[in-house]
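Subject: for your reference before the review

Hello V.,

The reviewers asked for a structural picture of the protein, and I figured it would be easier to keep everything in one thread rather than splitting it across files. Below is the amino acid sequence we used in the manuscript, unchanged from the supplementary table.
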Amino acid sequence: MIKRILSGMRPTGKLHLGNLQGALKNWVDLQNDGCHDCFYFVADWHALTSDYSTPDQIRENSLDMVIDWLSVGLDPEKSTLFVQSAVKEHAELYLLLGMITPLSWLERNPTYKEMREELTGKDLSTYGFLGYPVLQAADIIIYKGQGVPVGVDQLPHVELTREIARRFNFLYREIFPVPDPLLTEVPKLLGIDGRKMSKSYGNSIYICDEGDELKTKVSSMFTDPQRMRRKDPGNPDICNVYSFHQLYTEEGEVAQIAVDCRTAGIGCTDCKKRLYERMLLAMSPIHERRNHFCSHLDDVREIIERGNRKAAAVAKATMEEVRDAVKI
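And here is what came back from the structure prediction:
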């Protein structure tokens, strides 16, 4: 039985390798396994929940993000790629779900509290930010999504969507499947400064980085902080460069790098040079596809328009059922 999958990303800037390893590779695998009908959307309304005062780049970022999706292997013949705001039914269902969602469910959302503490430079005391999980629920269940690929940290989002779907089905009638979280293994991938890779920290290696830009970033990566000199033995277990080798270098070579590091058989500079070469090799097909799509923007826009039309047809059919159920 084919299972419908729904997921999205906010267009808040360039996508980095953490996005690639943590989400996009899994999206591609789901699209290609023959068991899933995948809907992936640009969550541009969600971008406004934290960046409502600076919306200038949202359209440009949205197009750029779809280019990255296509570059890493998302196929519009296998997956529906669309923009949230192009399907107005999302907003209608969001409004109706907001009528039945208890305020206490939103206030206890752990991500709400965490983001308010982390993003201290932004005013997040808005109805839109408090209520974004309701919009997220509408995004998922309007397509009768049965699975939502997430990391462990995003489980509360899916659980709230499940509760909202159950409540609607109980109050009116059974329309929405209760979606299951599809837990994905998110590899540890830190930024070049050793902190969490994040656009806001300025420590990201982006999917679009190549050539000298990629080489410079790899060269500046933090290594084992306890290894002060070339002749000192290192500890690959606490070295960020080694964690990247585990993703981009062949298994046998990775094992040898670990041995050489522990015995001071290789220095950090040479280790980084080798990592750059392996990353350049692994990323070259992505960069080639990206350069192609960047020079064929009309084709990308047509892909998005086709996806918008397909998504809208599904959403409209669902909303006909919803309106009938709530007697509107």
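For the response letter, the relevant points are probably these. The two ends are 33 Å apart (CA to CA). Strands lie at 3-9, 36-42, 79-83, 147-150, 180-183.

Happy to draft the paragraph if you're swamped.

O.
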